[in-house]
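Hi R.,

Here are the chain sequences for the assembly we discussed:
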Amino acid sequence: MIAGISIYEILTLTTLLFFIGVYGFITRKNLISILISVELIMNASVVNFVIINKYLYPDALQGVLFSIFIIAVAAAETALAIAIIISLYRQIGSVEVDETETMKY
Amino acid sequence: MDWNSFLLMRQEILLLSIILLLLIVEVFISKNKKGNLIHFAIFLFGIHTAVGLLAMEEGSIFGGMFHTTGLIHFFKNVLNIGVFILLLQSADWLQEKIVEHQRGTEFFVLLFSSLLGMYFMVSAGDFLMFFIGLELSTLPVAALAAYETAKSKSSEAGIKLILSAALASGVALFGISMLYIAGGSIYFNDIMQTITTSHLSILGMVILFSGLAFKISLVPFHFWTADVYEGAPISVASYLSVMSKGAGVFILMILLFTILRPLLHIWENLVYILALTTMFIGNLFALRQNNLKRFLAFSSIAQAGFILLGIINGEQLGVATVIYFVLIYVFSNLAAFGVVQAISLQTGKENISDYEGLYRTNPKLSLVMMLALFSLAGIPPVAGFFGKFFLFTAAAAKGYYLLVFLAVVNVTVSLYYYLLVVRAMFLRTNEHAIPHFNSKLYMKVGLVLTVLSILVLGLYSPLYEYIFELSKNLM
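And here is the predicted structure of the full complex:
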């Protein structure tokens, strides 16, 4: 619990974070930036879980435990995505979305 | 502690030990004998599939995080048999294209890890296990999609899959956090008792639904599907379209029918709209494809739309018809992808126009392809017809007559493009037709197994009754 701050402010913050992530995912043209946007979405959920656990259901540790797992899984996801981006960069020499449009419709 | 309770995780433990064994053998085997590993892995997985068929008790362990029922056990066996056939079909491709780059074992390890994730996902008793299973089943497939590192298309498919999957799981997580507020717990059993219709629970349900809709490629979330199928190796595309989609449908159905049952009157509207858009857009886009992998991708999107017709039922009938349809869909799609795999391996051709005159040179392969497409389209003697028919019955039982009517219209549309391929194979002649060739033993066995299943599943009615009996209790 943080003194003077209710759960509403924090949930507003995480929701904003979530939608900034979605916006970034759609508008960004660089694969790394898209990856960062996905991280924002994940982290919004992490904060959500911790805050809900702390403010609403403090008798069990479910939310906090969940957040640890999300962080670990998100790290694995990022590592794999970076590996694939590097493999792509070796072939086409670019990490821009415009270059990865050989297949469409 | 009662060690016997671990027997409920028998399949998971066995599969995990196969993965570890393969990793160990990979280290100690000499370089020029790596080809033998393929036979070894297929043999091990065959044993695993056979052992999985043994009966299993129902129950739950780890405080309810992991549970298994008759239906879940049955579904795991379907996944096992599907993956076994898939391995048979891809053995030649591995032998000829992959082993020389010293990357044969990774294929099996990644594929089995993904299957392990699906086991945990369908057996999940709380959202934590569900989430980890979802990720474990998706991430290895993304690595597999980018497997042919020499091709830029393959990497492109990989990056598209991993980014969409990451977005989808992030979105699903946000939905789960909303349901955590509304339900007060992450355990399915606890949420089931406390959840009520409120703005918060509806919001959580919709966001979680959209995250899962990515996984089974329902229409507003289908953009990755065709690109990934086209770029990825054919075995991986086949795996994505069959196993990933099947497991996704199964877990979506469990979530909707059990913990989200109080919101039934909300999500049935959602499913109604998504079923319509998915069927129409999948079918209309399939009409204009020439590449067979893209064609099958859009056909699999349209099939997902038909599956929603069973989900909208919301009762035992819905569960049974969806499982039955998924079972048939698995074998039909495996047969279609198997033929594409066999031809692409020999000639490298993947377009529908390349298939012209195939019947004159390779009659058996064209017959397999024809049966698979008939089953996907739903033409009576083969199994696909019964699958679709039961799905329509399930939707009609709840009074969705308009939806069933529009679905039948869609079946007619889909008949057109499935028959386009059949016409190219049987009625057209082509001087540059694909020459006659003989597939290897593994591929033959894989194709024969799928054909047998397509023919038998539709005629053997006790199977449907068995599934109906199993679908009584979902949790």
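The longest helix of chain B spans residues 152-183. Chain B has one domain: 3-470.

Let me know if anything looks off.

Best,
T.
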